């Protein structure tokens, strides 16, 4: 992963609180601990550990979350000194993903990421392998047995999971090929976690995907059909939200999920424009897309597939009039970007968003003339459904009987699909 964009301390603390709340943890206190020089054994200095212990005793806290990376030795030593369970940012995110993943594929991905994380530690029980649901055991009770996991068993299990995931990827690839032959463009929603992707998805599709004010409310990709102006059917895809310092294990494990974005005709980057760290979050999203080799068109020095990008400024309804005016002025200074202010919650701006997506998908459409037998009802209906029919007239008798002449505006992609009918 590339270096994380700068986020101020208070925002970072707020995000850490959000991660804890996402899994139902009651946060008694959150504070920053400045580190001049990281200690190999404990990360923090002795005085800092004492201050943390005092805060834990005062609030009867049972768990300490370190919003950073801990080595196995640091985690164990901190637990011994604080007399409490300690987990780091990676462990917390893995726990959230373990609870939220709903599909078999999601469970496989999370389990593989968890085992990869555990393999370098071998200080926890991994009896979660037998579980059917729930988290992955980081937050077990105080009497939790800590055993050294068997390296060979972990390696074997990871190899088996990778084989199963490879089969999932092949199946996804086949599904993408089928969608590629189908006459429907694909629109992928991406963005920072809790930016409002699922709320927008539900607004546009009438679906009921989990959309809550929680980090990582969506983990498994969801796809639904929608109608666009001039386009009978398009596929809208909701994806997992990105986050700063996403564990490297999860970046690799969720590559198959994010591969859906590579098959998109348009990428829609949903931003929480009311968040003070919206710019830093934008950089995180573009960094992850770059790491996956799917940077949108015009982004970075070596962009991947040339996929057009629309930037949606969501939660516009939460802005003051002054802030909204400033942002509109800023957007006008960047005419090369397609920016749509909207509120997925109220629906304000959604109609314009659909119009812009439709225009983008049909921008390279050209007028084509077809003479078809009047009996070719399926092809004629397809042209009416997926192209802009400028005229449809009687063309007299042909070899196969009455014919019709149609003038239809089609994109190259739609023309290719029509020719395969």
Give the secondary structure arrangement, pairings included:
Blueprint: H1 9-22, H2 46-59, E1 63-66, H3 72-82, E2 85-88, H4 89-100, H5 104-119, H6 151-181, E3 186-191, H7 197-205, E4 222-228, E5 231-238, H8 248-253, H9 255-262, E6 266-272, H10 278-291, E7 309-314, H11 321-332, E8 338-341, H12 350-361, E9 366-373, H13 377-386, E10 388-398, E11 401-410, H14 412-419
Helix pairs in contact: 1-4, 4-5, 5-6
Describe the model:
The structure is a single chain. With 421 residues, the chain is an alpha/beta fold. It has three domains: 33-169, GTPase HflX, N-terminal domain (Rossmann fold, 3-Layer(aba) Sandwich); 183-361, Rossmann fold (3-Layer(aba) Sandwich); 366-419. The chain is built from 14 helices and eleven strands. The strands form three sheets. It has a six-stranded mixed β-sheet with strand order 4-5-3-6-7-8, with helices on both faces. A three-stranded antiparallel β-sheet has the order 9-11-10. A hairpin with a 2-residue loop joins strand 4 (222-228) and strand 5 (231-238). Helix 1 (9-22) packs parallel to helix 4 (89-100) and helix 5 (104-119) packs antiparallel against helix 6. The chain is elongated, with a radius of gyration of 26 Å. The two termini are 44 Å apart.
Distance between the termini: 44 Å
Uncertain segments are: 1-6, 123-134, 141-149, 300-305
Structural class by SSE content? alpha/beta
CATH superfamily membership of the largest domain? P-loop containing nucleotide triphosphate hydrolases
Q: Can you tell me the CATH topology of the largest domain?
A: Rossmann fold
CATH classification, class level of the largest domain: Alpha Beta
Return the string of H and E elements: HHEHEHHHEHEEHHEHEHEHEHEEH
Helix content bin:
40-55%
Largest sheet descriptor: 6 strands, mixed
Strand content: 15-25%
The assigned CATH architecture of the largest domain is: 3-Layer(aba) Sandwich
Number of domains: 3
Number of helices: 14
């Amino acid at each position: 992963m590339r270096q994380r964009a700068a986020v101020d301390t208070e925002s970072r603390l707020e995000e850490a609180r959000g991660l804890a709340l996402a899994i139902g943890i009651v946060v008694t206190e959150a504070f920053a601990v400045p580190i001049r020089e990281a200690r190999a054994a404990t990360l923090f200095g002795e005085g800092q550990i004492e201050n943390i212990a005092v805060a834990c005793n005062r609030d009867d806290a049972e768990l300490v979350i370190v919003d950073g990376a801990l080595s196995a030795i640091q985690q164990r030593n901190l637990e011994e000194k604080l007399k409490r369970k300690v987990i780091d940012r990676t462990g917390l995110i893995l726990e959230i993903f373990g609870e939220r993943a709903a599909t078999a594929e999601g469970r496989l991905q999370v389990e593989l990421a968890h085992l990869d994380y555990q393999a370098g530690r071998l200080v926890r029980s991994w009896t979660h392998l037998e579980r059917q649901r729930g988290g992955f055991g980081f937050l077990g009770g105080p009497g939790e047995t800590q055993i050294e996991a068997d390296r060979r068993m972990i390696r074997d299990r990871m190899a088996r999971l990778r084989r199963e995931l490879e089969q999932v990827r092949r199946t996804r690839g086949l599904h993408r090929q089928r969608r590629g032959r189908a006459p429907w463009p694909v629109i992928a929603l991406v963005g920072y976690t809790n930016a409002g992707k699922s709320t927008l998805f539900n607004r546009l599709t009438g679906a009921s995907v989990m959309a809550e004010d929680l980090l990582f409310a969506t983990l498994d990709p969801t796809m639904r059909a929608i109608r666009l102006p001039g386009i009978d059917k398009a596929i809208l895809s909701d994806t997992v939200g990105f986050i700063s310092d996403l564990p490297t294990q999860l970046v690799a494990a969720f590559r198959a999920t994010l591969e859906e974005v590579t098959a998109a005709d348009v990428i829609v980057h949903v931003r929480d424009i009311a968040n003070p760290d919206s710019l830093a979050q934008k950089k995180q999203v573009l960094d992850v897309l770059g790491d996956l080799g799917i940077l949108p068109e015009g982004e970075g020095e070596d962009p991947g597939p040339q996929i057009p990008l629309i930037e949606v400024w969501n939660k516009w309804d939460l802005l003051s009039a002054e802030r909204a005016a400033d942002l509109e002025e800023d957007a006008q200074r960047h005419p090369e970007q397609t920016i749509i202010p909207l509120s997925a919650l109220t629906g304000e701006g959604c109609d314009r968003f659909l119009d812009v997506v439709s225009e983008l998908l049909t921008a390279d459409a050209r007028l084509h003339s077809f003479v078809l037998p009047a009996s070719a009802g399926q092809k004629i209906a397809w042209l009416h459904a997926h192209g802009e029919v400028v005229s449809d007239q009687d063309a007299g008798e042909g070899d196969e009987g009455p014919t019709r002449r149609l003038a239809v505006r089609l994109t190259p992609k739609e023309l290719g699909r029509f020719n395969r009918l």
